[in-house]
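Here is this case:
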Amino acid sequence: MANMTEAKTTSADRGNVAGVFQLPNFDFEAMFVSQRETMETLMEVNKIAIEGFQAVMLRQFESGRQAMDVFSMMVRDFGQPSGSAADRVAKQAEYSKQVVEKGLSNVREIGELVTKTSTQASNIINKRLTKGLDEVRDYSKKHVATV
């Protein structure tokens, strides 16, 4: 009999504990919507990153092609001596100046592409992060008020 009374008391105590520590209803639908939006954001950021990477690679390829064109002209002109030695040196110096200027321009342009891509991606991530924190705040306000 003592075991029966003890079992009832324990069961009643458990009921009271459950009442004291009542957990708020968890909104699975809101969680799934939030996670879907997060995944969509990640896919968008990945798309921007891939497009940015492709743009940078294409620009680097074009820069290399231009450098090879100038180098070919330098070799061709060097192999066909015309004019005085001073004229040839001046022409080679002009080619070198063009290569350096174009190279710096290309580096600047590639840097701008990388900056543009990373800024776009950061803005999208920041927007989603802010929205996610707002969702947590709103959820907690709603459920703390009902408990």
User: Anything to note?
Assistant: The first helix runs from residue 2 to 20. The chain is about 90% helix and 0% strand. Residues 72 and 123 are 43 Å apart (CA to CA).
